[in-house]
């Protein structure tokens, strides 16, 4: 780690690293004012009179009363679409050079999320903060600290737009803009990173695996697990540490790691440290900054202003769509144990933007949260209020109990015999009794969720299961053009994605 810390950093980054972590409310007000000042001469800032908001005695409240909330479709149609034609100063000063392509897990068409140089700089600051926070870990695998970073992400060979911008996975954009001092540590290197075909990229990584001294693996759990399995098989070894003996860290985010952990640890020769971060296409929102933390520490002092909308029937309909004027709280107004949807304003021109994630505060004093799911990824056909967090935890408990690996699963709800039912599709390559497995998952869900337990005695009549090879889930993602990188399989299937999944199973 000394090699990283001793490097002379740019003044802007060094200054950001020294920002105080105290007083969450003050930090967020400072961030909001900074964003408003920077964007006050943009078309968006002029339309919503940012100057007047800045002069208000309570700028945060004035901001919430003046600027409407936006989901992607609204802000894209009203504002961001213009930037794709090269129009400058729309929602952020200057032209947008990069767009992160994000289809999430429920949308078919790609979303174009603006990525600015200011946002890339903020992300770099937060990566360095996260690395420095490792020094406080008591059980630190020191041999791994200064070794290579294998980053499994999107291609750095981005598509170019007519107006001169570039678009691709955020991971590819970040890798393309990696700082010069990181070159020594970065794997798989520029040539392999440019490869767009995911299978070709994995095969190249496998071929060169023995040439690298990897200390960190960074990426989405499912694809990192697949990569390690391929390396182990290719070299005929028992575990990944026979190829990378100094592997000590796995940095992950975007999905809950619990369902993958059992299968992941079967590939290891010794324990490693799991580091969770919260990196979205719209910004680096938080990371686990201490070893015994229950959740992710929200970054409140680096160009992201957060609001928290209670995830309840008052603010969202049954399909997870937010109302026009929801109740929105600042970080000092939230309560522990309650679930909130995130609104985000950032230094790339997102304003009161519904991120789509739901979180729960586990430590308000330290601003620590756990990600509980997505606003549109939950099941509540009859009031069971089954969250992705509930599902992940039940699968983790049962996979440990049965000693099987369940790397993927998804759930759907449907009418059944005048009442309702759930159906689980579970990826498991181990031998397991489907009836025993789903019975235990059902029992665990009843223990974890009182509403679910009540509905299982009334309107939620049956729980069905279909066990599938892991390859089925991978092939479906491939058929949707979402193989690899940051793409995640949806935990709840609804609408078009459900129809496509059923058609794939019937004809795929």
Walk me through this protein's architecture.
The protein has 508 residues and is an alpha/beta fold. The chain folds into 3 domains: 2-80 and 300-374, no CATH class; 142-271, no CATH class; 388-507, Alpha-Beta Plaits (2-Layer Sandwich). It contains 18 helices and 18 strands. The chain has helices at residues 2-5, 11-17, 24-39, 43-47, 50-55, 59-66, 72-83, 117-133, 170-176, 190-193, 198-208, 221-235, 258-265, 388-402, 434-448, 450-455, 470-479, 495-507, and strands at 98-102, 111-115, 148-151, 159-160, 166-168, 186-187, 214-218, 249-253, 273-280, 283-287, 296-298, 304-310, 339-346, 353-363, 368-374, 408-416, 419-427, 460-468. The chain has an 11-stranded mixed sheet. Strands 2-1-5-4 form a 4-stranded mixed sheet. The chain has a 3-stranded mixed sheet with strand order 16-17-18. A hairpin with a 2-residue loop joins strand 16 (408-416) and strand 17 (419-427). The N and C termini lie far apart (48 Å). Mean pLDDT is 87; it is low at 1-9 and 16-21.
Q: In which order are the strands of the major sheet placed?
A: 6-3-7-8-9-10-11-15-14-13-12
The tally of domains stands at 3
Largest beta sheet, briefly? 11 strands, mixed
Count of β-strands: 18
**Helix content estimate:** 25-40%
Low-pLDDT runs: 1-9, 16-21
Rg is: 23 Å
